[in-house]
């Protein structure tokens, strides 16, 4: 019983001593000075890193701007892709240095931590295979120039404009606004719709009652002036001739070579302008007609036949 009481008293004294030491540290001026100094150092490191990233990105943009004015140029799309990649690399490197510096400021053994990270890295090496594959695939995409920032591509079920090609992922923005983020390692097949010129295909219907020869002459004259009106048209559109003979119309086909990905807008513009041009020459574009007879009209027709 006496031993238990003595142990309890000893425990209480130890607890009291620990609490007193903690309180002393909390109210110790030197402790708060150290905390304040460390906090200021961390804030200064973060501020400097932010400035370095901004200045570095600005310097990279200026370098590429000067490079674009030299006699030997690289395409704007490829230039933007490489610029985005270098900006990503710069950001990752600065962040890595910041983390190491902050750990050193907190008196954490960075060397021991890195050694431990090496052991952990071996343990998770198999799990990081996808990450390595993504990075390697990203480099091949850029250096083989499979596609670049600003290109309109189709990757799997995703389709849209390439917003960014990073070390690990590619970002594609669809025309409806969705942003698709695709790991580079998952990119197996790419359809790039922005490398070569596009072809706009326009079908126009002419009524059977119209003079076909006159309609062709009007269309040919109309097509000759289109390259001057639309800078996205590469060469004079071609009237290929009669495509089909419909139930109530003769269908002509027109093709126009345009700059990459401009064929849809040009098709719409040509249809509108051609409708106006045909109306000027009183050339009819057929439309469905419905003739209705009442019983009285039918009886009248029968009586006339009789």
Describe the structure.
- The protein is an alpha+beta fold and about 300 residues long.
- It has three domains: about 10-125, Helix Hairpins, CATH 1.10.287; about 130-190, Roll (SH3 type barrels); about 200-280, Alpha-Beta Plaits (2-Layer Sandwich), CATH 3.30.70.100.
- It has helices at about 1-25, 30-70, 75-105, 110-125, 130-145, 210-225, 225-230, 265-280, 295-305; strands at about 150-155, 160-165, 170-175, 180-185, 190, 200-205, 240-245, 250-260.
- The strands form two sheets. The protein has a five-stranded antiparallel β-sheet.
- Strand 3 (about 170-175) and strand 4 form a beta hairpin.
- Helix 2 (about 30-70) runs antiparallel to helix 3 (about 75-105).
- About 10% of the residues are buried.
- The mean pLDDT is about 80.
Q: What do the pLDDT scores average to?
A: 79
Text of the CATH class of the largest domain:
Mainly Alpha
Using the 3D structure, state the CATH architecture of the largest domain: Orthogonal Bundle
**Through-space gap between termini:** 136 Å
Helix content: 55-70%
Give me the secondary-structure category.
alpha+beta
Q: So what's the overall shape?
A: elongated
Strand order of the biggest β-sheet: 4-3-2-1-5
Strand content: 15-25%
Point out poorly predicted stretches: none
Helices, by number, come to 9
Q: Structurally, how many domains make up the residues?
A: 3
Query: What is the count of β-strands?
Result: 8
List the helices and strands in order: HHHHHEEEEEEHHEEHH
Cα radius of gyration in angstroms: 37 Å
In the CATH hierarchy, the third-tier topology of the largest domain is known as Helix Hairpins
InterPro entries: LSM_dom_sf, MS_channel_1st, MS_channel_C, MscS_beta-dom_sf, MscS_channel_2nd, MscS_channel_C_sf, MscS_channel_TM-2, YbiO_bact
Protein name: Mechanosensitive ion channel protein MscS
Family: Belongs to the MscS (TC 1.A.23) family.
Domain Mechanosensitive ion channel MscS C-terminal: 201-285
């Amino acid at each position: 019983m006496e031993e238990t009481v003595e142990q309890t008293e000893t425990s209480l004294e130890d607890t009291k001593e620990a609490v007193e030491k903690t309180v002393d540290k909390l109210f110790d001026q030197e402790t708060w000075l150290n905390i304040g100094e460390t906090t200021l150092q961390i804030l200064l490191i973060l501020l400097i890193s932010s400035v370095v990233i901004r200045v570095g990105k600005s310097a990279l943009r200026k370098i590429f701007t000067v490079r674009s004015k030299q006699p030997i140029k690289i395409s704007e799309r490829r230039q933007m892709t490489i610029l985005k990649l270098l900006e990503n690399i710069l950001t990752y490197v600065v962040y890595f240095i910041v983390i190491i510096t902050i750990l050193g400021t907190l008196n954490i053994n960075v060397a021991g931590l890195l050694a431990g990270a090496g052991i952990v890295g071996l343990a998770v090496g198999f799990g990081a295979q996808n990450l390595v594959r993504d990075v390697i695939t990203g480099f091949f995409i850029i250096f083989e120039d499979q596609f670049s920032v600003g290109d309109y591509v189709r990757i799997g079920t995703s389709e849209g404009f390439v917003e960014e090609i990073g070390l690990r992922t590619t970002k594609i923005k669809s025309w409806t606004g969705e942003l698709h983020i695709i790991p580079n390692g998952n990119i197996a097949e790419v359809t790039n719709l922005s490398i070569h010129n596009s072809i706009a295909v326009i079908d126009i219907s002419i009524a059977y009652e119209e003079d076909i020869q006159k309609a062709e002459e009007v269309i040919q004259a109309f097509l000759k002036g289109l390259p001057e009106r639309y800078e996205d048209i590469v060469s004079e559109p071609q009237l290929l001739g009669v495509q089909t003979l419909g139930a109530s119309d003769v269908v002509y086909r027109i093709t126009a070579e345009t700059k990459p990905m401009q064929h849809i807008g040009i098709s719409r513009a040509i249809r509108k302008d051609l409708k106006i041009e045909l109306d000027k020459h009183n050339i009819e574009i057929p439309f469905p007609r419905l003739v209705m007879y009442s019983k009285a009209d039918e009886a009248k027709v029968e009586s006339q036949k009789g």
